[in-house]
Amino acid sequence: MTNTIIPEQVASIVFAAGKGSRMKGYDGNKTLLPLLASPAAPYEGARPLLMEVLDNLPPGPKAIVVHHRADDVRRATAALSCSYWFQPETNGTGGALLAARPFLESVDQERVIITMGDVPLIRPETYGQLLDSLGKNHLTVLAFDPRDPAQYGKLEVEGPRVLRIVEWKYWSREQDPLRRARLRLCNAGVYAARRGPLLECLEELEKTPHTVEKERDGRWVTIQEYFLTDLVEIMNRRGYTVGYCLAEEEEVLGVDTPESLRRAQALYAQVRVSSLG
Hints:
By secondary structure, the chain is of the alpha/beta class. It has one domain: Spore Coat Polysaccharide Biosynthesis Protein SpsA, Chain A, CATH 3.90.550. The chain has helices spanning about 50-55, 70-75, 90-100, 100-105, 125-130, 170, 175-180, 195-205, 230-235, 260-275; strands spanning about 10-15, 35, 45-50, 60-65, 85, 110-115, 140-145, 155-160, 160-165, 185-195, 210-215, 220-225, 240-245. Strands 1, 4, 5, 6, 7, 8, 9, 10 and 13 form a 9-stranded mixed beta sheet that branches. α8 crosses α9. It starts with 10 loop residues before the first strand and ends with a helix.
């Protein structure tokens, strides 16, 4: 009799609330843009970004955080037995994670992936590396070293540890050469965490919103946002270990402009050709 080894399941949370305001002429949910484009219409085609993300995640329960065109997302993923968690307002990545807190409280998997529905090219092997790192970390950040780091948040690292994530507008002004040397890698916005410490730190995250100004429907408004990146400092303060894993820049490409969509489609086509050959 052969013993079958069943891989340990992982709980995954995918953020899919975005509108894609920089996609001119497109009013759908950004994560439903196609990786296989129609020659006649750039925003139409097959293989939505979100489906590629979901298929590359490890086995286990999956939660999708929705807001804009939520019903479209539900219909597109109806065959996958995901759960859906509505983010009442687009109040940041931390707000998206807080919307999925009941999911985290309901599952019994101890390892969690947090990822973005518009970052479709992350390989299953990379998610596996993130999860493996939880043997020594309580939270692991997926990092990369881009050719042009402008606009990205940067990891302040000390050896294998991540001390905090610094927004571009702050790290770009940093003058201290020692601090700048520690700000080499950029944040891909994808994480692996142990569920218990993550839930514990969400309580503090919920108490620390940021007041920011955002353009909404052609006018500037002041809103309260929650930053997922704050979890790094919260975990460090509580004595937990935060580390990082490296990925290639093309693998963590986020789709938020027509140009990045075309790039993702071209890279996806290359992967398909190489897998067939």
